[in-house]
Specification:
Elements lengths: L7 E2 L4 E3 L2 E3 L4 E2 L2 E2 L4 E3 L2 E3 L5 E3 L7 H9 L9 E3 L5 H4 L2 H7 L4 E5 H11 L5 E4 L4 E3 L4 E6 L9 E6 L3 E3 L20 H16 L3 H14 L5 E3 L12 H11 L5 E6 L5 H16 L3 E6 L5 H9 L3 E5 L2 E2 L2 E2 L1 H13 L5 E8 L4 H12 L3 E2 L4 E4 L4 H24 L1
Parallel strand pairs: 8-9, 9-10, 10-11, 15-16, 17-18, 17-19, 19-22, 22-23, 22-24
Antiparallel strand pairs: 1-2, 2-7, 3-6, 4-5, 7-8, 12-13, 13-14, 14-15, 20-21
The structure holds MU-OXO-diiron (FEO).
């Protein structure tokens, strides 16, 4: 068989042996528009150790990369930092294909892996702070519960000074480059932010605690090696500081306007709202028609925003389906400290705007302007009301920034 896949050496003893998923565009509700990687790492020490594995159908690619360094039968130990299937889906097959008979995971990781794969006998729980010697290196386990699953942990490899951070500080980005400093900085920042917004935002308080712990540990750090996307070697604390910033969820003067439309009435209202926002003092206004904007991109734009404005026509007494979709998604992500407002158009029953109001209230978005709900097609007075709604929200952003 032709030799296709190689490992990439990261340090004296650590190799990247993951897989690149160039074609994936949907990841349980998240638009992975640049694909992704599933990173696994091989530690070549007296105990040859594989840290995390890959999505099931990428198993052969990972094993081929392992084989480019060492015969897989010489792998002694698996460490599972995170049991979600993109990192564990081929675990039983990897146990069969390598010499490893033990899988180390957090206590919750053992429960999750057992429930997924029923691997009696192979699973061993490790405790937060526990260290095991692999030879010249030592692996220390750091639990990061609910970042983003109950089982999540990170593994720090002393000697090589690498933090294997599982989903932490990761991003969905397929590339031939393995290091973040080899990629355009704006792309790396955007994809890191998108991952945070869509996966970590609900756990921001826990992120703050985890970041504080990492800072307090003051580990010598050569690299952060996550389970998705590029590895950070230049300024390895850079993504940690970015997470710390996003976890604060500080309000800004940016506004996000999301809407859908049937006959362009709500679209016209959204444009007037956007003009009013800028007039009121918003420094950035992102208008996102849901016919083209994906829910995960809305979440990303909202990460560094201070206002959410939502528009919907009434259809069959309900909000438009795409609007319900995005609000369902955003409610789960639990972005705090937002102001906002609702608007929409209708023919004979205008219930959608009331539903939007209830939804924004439930999400904790402070409505700082009366809603605008217009019959059929907005006239000049209706558009002026929309502009006024935007202006009020813009002014609230200015006021909030002044008092925060
Ligand atoms: Fe990349 Fe939570 O799995």
């Amino acid at each position: 068989m032709a030799h296709v896949y190689d490992a990439v050496q990261l340090t004296d003893r650590v190799y990247w042996v993951g897989a690149i998923d160039w074609g994936i565009r949907e990841f349980h509700g998240y638009a992975t528009s640049r694909g992704t990687t599933y990173n696994a790492y091989l530690v070549m020490d007296e105990t040859v150790t594989l840290v995390d594995t890959v999505k099931a159908h990428f198993k052969d690619e990972m094993l081929a990369r392992v084989a480019s360094v060492v015969d897989p039968s010489r792998v002694d130990l698996l460490i599972s930092n995170h049991s979600e299937m993109d990192h564990s889906g081929c675990l039983p097959e990897v146990l069969d294909a390598t010499g490893a008979t033990r899988v180390l995971a957090s206590r919750n990781g053992v429960k999750a892996l057992q429930a997924h794969f029923h691997l009696d006998g192979a699973l061993e729980a490790v405790d937060n702070g526990q260290t095991i010697r692999l030879g010249a290196t030592e692996a220390t386990f750091v639990e990061t519960k609910m970042l983003h699953w109950p089982d999540s942990m990170m593994t720090y490899l002393s000697g090589e000074e690498v933090l294997f951070s599982q989903d932490g500080f990761g991003m969905h980005l397929a590339s031939s480059e393995r290091f973040a400093d080899q990629l355009p900085a704006d792309v790396v920042r955007h994809e890191l932010a998108k991952y945070y917004a869509n996966i970590l935002m609900p756990f921001s308080k826990l992120v703050m605690k985890a970041v504080a712990s990492l800072r307090a540990m003051n580990l010598p750090l050569a690299m952060i090696a996550p389970d998705h996307g590029p590895i950070f070697r230049e300024d390895p604390m850079g993504p940690v500081e970015a997470w710390a910033h996003w976890a604060e969820q500080k309000p800004t003067r940016k506004a996000v306007v999301v809407y859908d439309t049937m006959w362009h009435s709500t679209a016209g209202m959204a444009q007037a709202v956007a003009e009013g926002l800028a007039e009121g003092g918003a420094t950035s206004v992102k208008v996102m028609p849901l016919a083209s904007a994906h829910r995960s991109d809305v979440a990303t734009e909202l990460l560094e925003a201070g206002a959410l404005l939502v528009g919907s026509p009434t259809i069959n007494n309900m909000v438009f389906p795409t609007v319900a979709d995005v609000l369902t998604y955003l409610e789960g992500l639990n972005r705090r400290h937002l102001v906002g407002a609702a608007f929409g158009s209708y023919g004979w029953n205008g219930k959608a705007v009331g539903t939007l109001e209830e939804w924004l209230d439930r999400m904790g978005v402070e409505r700082v302007a009366d809603s605008v709900n217009l019959l059929y097609v907005p006239d000049a007075d209706g558009l002026a009301r929309c502009r006024g709604l935007g202006r009020q929200v813009g002014q609230a952003l200015v006021e909030r920034e002044r008092t925060c």
